[in-house]
Write a structure and sequence with these properties.
Blueprint lengths: L4 H11 L4 E4 L6 H14 L4 E5 L2 H6 L3 E2 H5 L8 H9 L2 H9 L2 E5 L6 H15 L9 E5 L18 H6 L2 E4 L9 H11 L5 H9 L10
Parallel strand pairs: 1-5, 1-6, 2-3, 2-4, 4-5
Length: 214
């Protein structure tokens, strides 16, 4: 896969070992970039794990759910309770100890509560007083899309987000849509806005047959 300018910039920052947040609207190649990053680290013998907040999202990036990787079940309970659970979970404990780079896709669905619980486990299992016990974090997603359930707050509102010191990499080129007007409409609606032109186009499609210009 040939990376565009924004993807290449993000890729180069990832290579430095810094924590990175890769974002942008749907269709800009976030998941494809994650796959490229994984290939690069695996070729160099680095232990990288790809996770997501739902099973479907995990399949899309050939990973596993964050809960399964972490060995926390549903993630309910106090941080100390979850820590004890992980210590009794051989696979989960091994994941925490051996992972050098952790990717979390669809991170917009990660609640501040779970975010801080995972950080607590990482620091204690790895015995390193740094976010997630010092592993490199690659967060990927779009906070204009799906949020945590229930949506009380987003993980970037936690003080831990600032402590992670993410380099924010915004991907802009839409790889999925070549129609400029449609891209503009999607961008507006993503931000909760619709110009008169967008409204006019949408109204023109009322009662039309799907997949046709009729």
């Amino acid at each position: 896969m040939q990376l565009n300018k924004d993807q290449d910039t993000a890729f180069e920052i990832v290579k430095t070992g810094q924590n990175v947040f890769i974002t942008g609207q749907g269709g800009v190649g976030k998941s494809e970039l994650v796959k490229k990053i994984c290939e690069w680290f695996e070729e160099r013998g680095k232990c990288i794990h790809v996770t997501a907040l739902t099973g479907i999202a995990a399949l899309n990036v050939k990973g596993k759910t964050l809960h399964r990787w972490a060995g926390i079940g549903l993630g309910e309970g106090k941080p100390d309770d979850l820590l004890r659970k992980v210590r009794r979970h051989p696979k989960g404990r091994a994941n925490w100890v051996n992972t050098a780079i952790l990717v979390i896709d669809e991170v917009s669905m990660l609640s501040p509560e779970l975010f801080t619980k995972l950080d607590y486990i990482g620091r204690n299992i790895r015995m390193i007083d740094a976010p997630f016990g010092g592993m490199q974090l690659i967060f990927c997603g779009d906070f204009c899309q799906l949020g945590p359930v229930p949506v009380d707050a987003y993980c970037f509102q936690s003080p831990l987000w600032a402590e992670c010191d993410f380099a924010v990499c915004y991907l802009r080129e839409n790889m999925r849509q070549s129609d400029g007007l449609f891209q503009k409409m999607l961008s507006e609606i993503r931000m909760g806005y619709a110009s008169e032109e967008t409204r006019r186009v949408l109204r023109s499609r009322i009662d039309c047959k799907v997949g046709t210009d009729e």
